[in-house]
UniProtKB/TrEMBL annotation:
The lineage of its organism: Bacteria, Bacillati, Bacillota, Clostridia, Peptostreptococcales. Residues 55-157 form the GAF domain. It comes from the Bacteria. InterPro entries: GAF, GAF-like_dom_sf, Phosphatase_reg/MetRdx. This is GAF domain-containing protein. Gene3D superfamilies: 3.30.450.40. Belongs to the free Met sulfoxide reductase family.
Length: 167
C-alpha cells in the first residue's frame, strides 16, 4: 500500500494523530505479513509525530524486552524488565509518560539525545508482549494527547498482530 502524506504540514497535532490511525488501519487491513505491518507502523509514527528521535517496539522474549522494528538510530538490543522506562511500563502494565528522562530512576540512555519518553505496554489477552517506545530530544514533549492516541495505536495493532509468533 502506497501512503501519501501530502498536506500533513497543515494539520495540527491531533489531526495528525487521527490521520495516523486511519493510515495504520489501512496498512494493517491490506497486508498479512505481521513483521512488515509492525515495521510500517513505526514508520507511520516517525512520519506523523513531530519532534521524535526514535519510535519502535521492544518484544518480550524470555522475560526481557528485545529490540523489534524501529525508526531512528541504533538502540539497546535488550532491556531487563526491572530497567528503564520500557522495563517499568512492561512490569507495571501501565503507560509511562516521562517529561524528563534524567529524573527517572534507572533510565537507560540508549541515545543521549533523548530527553523525554512515552512508553505504552503491548498487552493482549492479559499477556504483556512488549512495549511501544517513543523518544524525543525535547523535554516535556509528550502530553495526554499523544498518550491517548498511542494507546489507541497499540489497541489497533492488537486487532491485527498475533504477538505470540514473536515470542
Amino acid at each position: 500500500m502506497a501512503i501519501k502524506l501530502n498536506g500533513i504540514e497543515k494539520m495540527n497535532a491531533e489531526q495528525r494523530l487521527k490521520y495516523m490511525l486511519v493510515l495504520l488501519e489501512g496498512q494493517l487491513s491490506s497486508e498479512s505479513d505481521e513483521l512488515a505491518n509492525i515495521s510500517n507502523a513505526m514508520a507511520l509514527i516517525k512520519a506523523l509525530v513531530e519532534d521524535l528521535n526514535w519510535a519502535g517496539v521492544y518484544l518480550m522474549k524470555n522475560e526481557e524486552l528485545v529490540l523489534g522494528p524501529f525508526q531512528g538510530l541504533p538502540a539497546c538490543n535488550r532491556i531487563k524488565l526491572q530497567n528503564g522506562v520500557c522495563g517499568a511500563a512492561a512490569t507495571r502494565r501501565n503507560t509511562m509518560l516521562v517529561p524528563n528522562v534524567e529524573e527517572f530512576e534507572g533510565h537507560i540512555a540508549c541515545d543521549s539525545a533523548s530527553k523525554s519518553e512515552l512508553v505504552v505496554p503491548i498487552i493482549k489477552d492479559d499477556i504483556v508482549y512488549g512495549v511501544l517506545d517513543l523518544d524525543s530530544p525535547s523535554l516535556n514533549r509528550f502530553t495526554d494527547l499523544e498518550k491517548n492516541y498511542m494507546e489507541k495505536f497499540v489497541d489497533k495493532l492488537n486487532e491485527y498482530i498475533n504477538w505470540e509468533r514473536f515470542l
